[in-house]
Amino acid sequence: MIEFRDVSKTYGQDLAVADFSLTAPSGKITVLMGLSGSGKTTLLRTVNKLVQPTSGSVLIDGNEIADLDSVVLRRSIGYVMQEVGLLPHKSVLDNVTLIANIAGQTKDEALRNALELLELVGIGSSFHDRFPGQLSGGQQQRVGVARALAIRPNILLMDEPFGAVDPIVREELQDELIRIQRQLSLTIILVTHDRYEAIKLADQLVVLSQGAKIEQVGTPKELTEKPANKFVQKLLGL
Amino acid sequence: MEWAAKNFDFVLQLSVAHLLISLVPLFLGSVFAFALVRLTPARLAGTIGTTFSAIYAIPSLAIFVALPAVIGTSYLGPTNVVIALSVYVAASMFFSTRDAFGQVPKPAVFIARAQGLSPLQLFVHVELPLAIPGLIAGLRVAAASTVSMASIGAIVGVRNLGYLFLDGFQRKIPEEILTGLFAIFLIGIAMDIGLMALGRVLTPWTRRSAQRV
Amino acid sequence: MFSIGELFDWLTDPENWAGRYGLANLFLEHLTLTLVSLAIAGLLAIPIGIAIGQSGRGESLVIAISSASRAIPTMGLMFALVMLMGVEFRQFAVVLALVSIAIPPVLAGAYAGIKSVPIAIREGARAQGMTTWQQIRHVGLPLSAPSMVGGFKIAYLQVVSTVVLAPLVGLGGLGFGIIQGLALRDFAQLTGSALVIVLLSITGERLLAKVQSKLVRRLIH
After folding, report:
1. Per-residue pLDDT at B213 exceeds 50
2. Residue ranges per domain, chain B?
3. Quick check: is C7 in a domain?
């Protein structure tokens, strides 16, 4: 369970996030949806301390993350983003094992783990020795997901993870994400501006406006059937 | 040709000296530039850059003979030449090292940090290997100009292939000058090929990624 | 060793500035040799660079010339040319050496400048019915001017620095004070001449860099 308590973040004069409070339940997918500049990425990054809140706190299973070492914390949380960020100089397999090795798994453990994960995300063994530059965008993001899971996290943070792949592949990846999430009962916070993606993936859907102001929270069904206001209606394309 | 054959041992001896007086500054200057790029705070980068481009503009012979007045070394001998060439290498490697690290893909660095790599791990596993192509390119430029510039050291009494120019001119032996030119050219090419090969060995992914399957 | 005071005295002594081997005349010789060589190199290399950049043919030639030129010691080139052409033609030989030192960077600057003009802009100019000459005159030249000045800046530094060696083959220029100073152990003359050379090269470099950034800014506006 991830709790945001009155989280605010200012950059100089700009208020990116103002007094944001929310609970993302364990084993569920929480989707933060908003336009660009709504502060959704900033919020996501407060969870693994890539961004320090100006005020307020973030708790994971009741523990204040401010008290945790940021490197240790980050090694327990998977991170996936649109640009993927695979290491171009390492093979697919090495990209997945590197993080696990660094997080303290033994070589054997990391390798076994990586093989399992690559299978889970649908990357066949013929791709293991290739470099990221030899993969398609969709394949790269599959590897990106496997890498994020290599440290066996309970929490996965995803920032527009499928924004760069074409629509057909995107649907495929979304289906697989749901399958993997159920199988590993992951707690996921996913940021997107795509309403189809939001409605499809969310257990809990949060619609944000400027300054990460919560316009409405609920299941996709609740939001589509009873949008709280014009903004939600418009953003969900109703 | 005849002159070169007759004086082969002498030319070889000068070549070794020439290689040494090029390699030492290349090493010292690159390490110095590397340390400057990685260890000095970003706000000093502009000042360092301006200083280096000014130094780079100074003709080598002027530096060779101005150094004693600045740092109190003796006028003749290899010390000034080694220091001056090291400074030139540092000046050119400062910019190429900075660019090499600037070209490391941002998402790869970001995600490595997001997944909990410490700054040292980030450097070893991500930044350094990805900067190698840029570093090698920079070294190739620095090596070529250092090898060619080292010959000017002969004017201040350093025995290297540049000596063949001075001696050949004085004694009116064109072959001697041409031998020097050719030997320096060969050393330059050899170093260039060596660096290129090193780059290929260290960056296997650049070739395989290009031929996308 | 000598003191800063001695250096100052030497530099401010009017006697060291006057006459055939005075700083004033040597400075003028240095500058003349440099500018003449740069001008000739420009006349030769700019049109070729533009032609290669515009047509896309001969690109490997530019790359080969610029990488080979880096490995050739300027000092040896100058000595060899003077020796081969004969000492009585040393003035031509030195200019020829300087021109061949200046050509690669000027050529590369012109070529890279034209090459860097975005394809859309070139196509646009062609689509509007501009002739090749008009494309060069109205699109290529103005857009590539900063890169060309950049090429001249590199060439200037290399030529100024090679002219320093001209006294070794019997010509003048500011290197005279260094060569004579070394021979006579006159460290004030040596350091004083080096200082004037440093000023000449840094001032020229700064000046060209200024022109370059002005041209860039004019394009952005």
Report:
1. no
2. 2-204
3. no
Q: Nearest-5° angle of CA A12, CA A15, CA A17? A: 130
Residue C1 lies in a domain: no
Tell me: the pLDDT tens digits for B1-17?
789 899 999 999 999 99
Residue numbers of chain A with a pLDDT score lower than 70 = none
| Region C96-114 average pLDDT | 94
C touches A, CB cut-off 8 Å, minimum 3 pairs:
no
Q: pLDDT digit string (tens) for B131-150? A: 999 999 999 999 999 999 99
CB of B120 within 8 Å of a chain A CB? The answer is no
C 67-86 near B (Cβ less than 8 A): 67, 70-77, 79-80, 82-84
Q: Full-prediction pTM beyond 0.80?
A: yes
CA distance, residue C31 to nearest chain B CA (Å):
14
Q: Do B116 and A78 touch (CB under 8 A)?
A: no
pLDDT at C115: 87
CATH architecture of B2-204: Orthogonal Bundle (1.10)
Residue-range domain boundaries for chain A: 2-40+71-235
What residue in B sits closest to A91 (Cα-Cα)?
Answer: B205
Which of B64, B65, B184 to mutate: most C Cβ within 10 Å? B65
Does C15 map to a domain? no
Residues from chain A contacting residue B107 (CB–CB below 8 Å): 81, 83-85
Q: How many domains does chain C have?
A: 1
Fold of A2-40+71-235: Rossmann fold (3.40.50)
- 């540049």: which residue's tokens? B162
Shortest distance between the Cα of A69 and any Cα of chain B, in A, equals: 10
Q: What contacts A15, CB < 8 A, 6 or more positions away?
A: A8, A9, A211
> Tens digits of per-residue pLDDT, C30-87?
999 999 999 999 999 999 999 998 888 888 888 888 878 888 899 999 999 999 999 8
Inform me whether the C-beta atom of residue B130 falls under 8 Å from chain A C-beta atoms.
yes
Q: How many CB pairs under 8 A join A and B?
A: 83
Instruction: Reply yes or no on whether the pLDDT at B211 is more than 60.
Output: no
Query: With an 8 Å Cβ cutoff, is B100 touching chain A?
Result: no
